[in-house]
Amino acid sequence: MTSWACTGVLGVPPLLRDAQAATAKTGAYLPATRENYLKLADETEAMLRKDVLEVWFPRTVDNENGGLRSNFARDWTPLARGDGKFSVFQGRMTWIALQVAMRRPELKEQFLAIVNRGVNYMSDVM
After folding, report:
1. Single pTM value for the model
2. Phi and psi dihedrals of 58, rounded to 5?
3. How far apart are CA 111 and CA 58, in angstroms?
4. Nearby residues of 116 by Cβ (< 8 Å), 6 or more positions away
């Protein structure tokens, strides 16, 4: 079973989509092989980078007012009006950036700068 976030926001990785279609047709599941798991992992990683990391970061970085912005139009342009910056959002985006820095060495430098920005904003402003 896939979650709403996977199907509604990000879409479904091609291998998983194909497996769901095959299961619906034949009642058989995609074999749990190393090859299928690695292919699904690669597709999921590509979706994470394209549909999450490249969308939110660095767009969320607020170079004018500090911290991380959360208010965007449908085309991802920042909205001038905002409801303020909330500690939960600041903490969540800082944590995500930290996880990326810890788990993706090739992105570490880029995301540590975002982590520092978030931590500084939460400790100095909030």
Report:
1. 0.73
2. -95, 15
3. 9
4. none
The tokens for 113 are 């700068």
> What are the tens digits of pLDDT across the range 36-70?
899 999 999 999 999 999 999 989 999 988 999 99
Can you tell me whether residue 72 is helix, strand or coil?
A: strand
Residues 79, 69: Cα–Cα separation, whole Å: 9
Identify the three-state secondary structure at position 17.
Answer: helix
- Amino acid 39 reads K
Residue 63 phi, psi (nearest 5): -75, -20
Task: State the alpha helices, DSSP H only, in 1-126.
Answer: 4, 14-26, 34-48, 54-56, 87-103, 108-124
Contact by Cβ (8 Å): 36, 30 = yes
Contact indicator for 95, 60 with CB cutoff of 8 Å: no
Q: How far is 123 from 74, CA to CA, in rounded Å?
A: 31
The first and second tokens of residue 78, run together, are 């920042």
Q: CA 27, CA 103: separation in Å to the nearest integer?
A: 37
**Cross-strand pairs, 68:** 61
